[in-house]
Design a protein that fits this description.
The chain is mainly alpha-helical. It contains ten helices and five strands; from the N terminus they run H-H-E-H-E-H-H-E-H-H-E-E-H-H-H. Helix 7 packs across helix 9.
Length: 180
């Protein structure tokens, strides 16, 4: 077999690669009303720069050490804001985080980067998709302007689109139905 050319690497989607857009998020109007935190760990993380940008830092190992700690983190949170890995965004895979599902089930709104999941789960209230940092800031402002409406919508989305009694019957039927 001959040499196989290496495919071009897609651009990464790390937080530092989205600067200055991501870096402005904590300074946006809603972030001043509701401080934003990053759960990170590692010796190479630029902690001083992250703090100077206005982020609070949570120890990722500590807050996820036990299910109870993770549940307490979500319960104490006003909601979730998250970027997706580039592979999910670039391929428009529809990937959806189990962490986001946990936030929604707890009645916490989520502002998350769209991987084309918005084709399957509604976006706009309670769960808000973004593709640019300007859209992310607008979504955070929307959540901050009416948190109770967004919390109720988040729970309703989890109940309608993610609850096992709603999802599993159709999935099992699809798996076991006879197809010719």
């Amino acid at each position: 077999m001959g040499l196989v050319p290496r495919p071009a690497r897609p651009q990464r989607n790390r937080i530092r690669d989205q600067s200055p857009g991501v870096r402005q998020i904590p300074r946006s109007a809603p972030a001043r009303q509701c401080p934003l935190a990053l759960a990170i760990n590692g010796l190479k993380a630029p902690y001083p720069k992250i703090k100077s940008d206005g982020w609070q830092i949570l120890d990722a190992n500590d807050i996820t050490l036990t299910p109870a700690k993770y549940q307490a983190l979500i319960a104490a949170s006003a909601g979730e804001w998250s970027v997706a890995k580039n592979v999910y965004v670039a391929t428009r895979s529809g990937w959806f985080s189990c962490r986001t599902a946990c936030y929604l089930a707890a009645g916490r709104p989520a502002v998350v980067q769209d991987t084309a999941w918005s084709k399957f789960i509604p976006s706009g209230t309670g769960l808000l998709a973004f593709n640019t940092m300007d859209e992310a800031i607008a979504a955070l402002k929307s959540v901050a302007s009416d948190p109770l409406r967004h919390r109720q919508a988040a729970y309703d989305i989890a109940r309608e689109y993610l609850a096992p009694d709603r999802v599993l019957p159709a999935m099992i039927e699809s798996i076991y139905s006879e197809k010719t």
